[in-house]
Amino acid sequence: MHKDILVIDDNPDIRFLICNILKEQNFKVRSAANYDQAMIEINKKLPDLAIIDIKLDKTDKDGIDLLKVIVEKNKLTPVIMISGHATVQIAVEAIRLGAYEFIEKPFSTEKILNYVNRALENASLKKEKDIIENKLFHSFELIGKSNSILKIKKTIEKLSSSESRILIYGPTGSGKELVARKIHKNSNRSKEPFIILNAALLKEKTYEKELFGQEFDDGNISFGALERANKGTLLIDEVSEIPFETQANVLRVLIDQKFKRLNGSKDISVNIRLISSTSKNLKELVDVGKFREDLFHRLNVVPIELTSLSSRTEDIPLLVEYFKEKLSEINGVQQPKIDIKNDNLYTYNWPGNVRELRNLVERVTILSANESKENINKLMDDILSSSSSIENDKTLLEKSFASPLKEAREHFEKEYLITQLKKNHGNISRTADFIGMERSALHRKLKSLGIKGIN
């Protein structure tokens, strides 16, 4: 299929010249002479690429405004800005706002075609990467055999035929979005949209626009998350960050299943399944008056709690093996030889939880092509020897130095043996062999330290 290119320039000669150059290369070409004509074409269909002159004949709206419109609609759509009298500051600003390239007039046929082809190729590669990552992310499974993960899997199964609202609790990076996606995928709405609104990333004045959408004087409409999720599922991530005033409007939507766009007069009815997630304790926020109690009870119909990775280290080997396979597929490289018995994997605190583990595996996957197991282990040790792990070691040492010798030694022995047992999946014989201890002696030591069975 021929790529669709929109050329926007108020000079008819330049517009005609660029259009002819592109048509000779079998591109499908549309053109516009000013901002208003360009908006008509953009609203008809977003082009595969836009070439925009910065200075247009309408003084209050120029090419930069059109660039912003296109980037907001789809940041992957490449935009080439052109001008005969722009300053360096304007060129830099255009690139900062998302333009692929800036070209000064006059330009040769070869130059414009070179930039067009590179921009389209770059956009195509980004789109392919997004599609691959999106497919793989959608196919990601909730990995683990710990009691907390097994419990969540059973809950997701039970929710498959339910329309109940769900509130997912868990620290940053623990997999809240993945759980929400699994719930949607198993539901009767699985073929409908799954929309995410990350409340933590929005500016205070944009919450209502992002939720409800907005109508503009020129007839354009910006659709909010509620409308885009109609018939499907809406995940409000970090719901605790929604301003207190906006929470009342969210509550009204849950009660009425309808709302008005900003500057709109007509009621918009929606049918959505709402899932919320938070890394904060909403009940505590309710108690101190920072979150509406009535909204909390509406959201918290079915609570699901994800625990930190450091509290379920028995899942680490499974996660490492799983991410190795998935991430090597995404990046098109060989699977790295990661040693899942590496002590640092189990002693590290994992403040970023499963997301941090995934990032570690991806980094090792990319950097360790054709490296030996020993070199990969060293690379992992270097990565994990970060400021947070050093801080954890410092805290442990401070506790030890503040204790009598006997208590400090017992504390160290307990931490060491728990780590070794987790590495060996609770197998006493293998653990005893590894640490050079008789099996019966290890049993006695575990009992004296109050360490129970670890799976």
Structure description:
The protein is an alpha/beta fold. It has 4 domains: 4-129, Rossmann fold (3-Layer(aba) Sandwich); 146-307, P-loop containing nucleotide triphosphate hydrolases (Rossmann fold, 3-Layer(aba) Sandwich), CATH 3.40.50.300; 314-386, Orthogonal Bundle (Helicase, Ruva Protein, domain 3), CATH 1.10.8.60; 403-448, Arc Repressor Mutant, subunit A (Orthogonal Bundle). It has helices spanning 12-24, 35-44, 63-73, 88-96, 109-139, 147-158, 176-185, 207-212, 225-228, 244-256, 282-287, 293-299, 316-331, 343-347, 353-367, 373-384, 387-401, 405-423, 428-435, 439-448, and strands at 4-8, 28-32, 49-53, 79-83, 101-104, 166-169, 194-198, 214-215, 221-222, 233-237, 258-260, 267-269, 273-278, 302-305. The strands form 4 sheets. Strands 2-1-3-4-5 form a 5-stranded parallel sheet, sandwiched between helices. Strands 7-10-13-6-14 form a 5-stranded parallel sheet. Strands 8-9 form a two-stranded antiparallel ribbon. Strand 8 and strand 9 form a beta hairpin. The two termini are 56 Å apart. Residues 387-391 have low confidence and may be disordered.
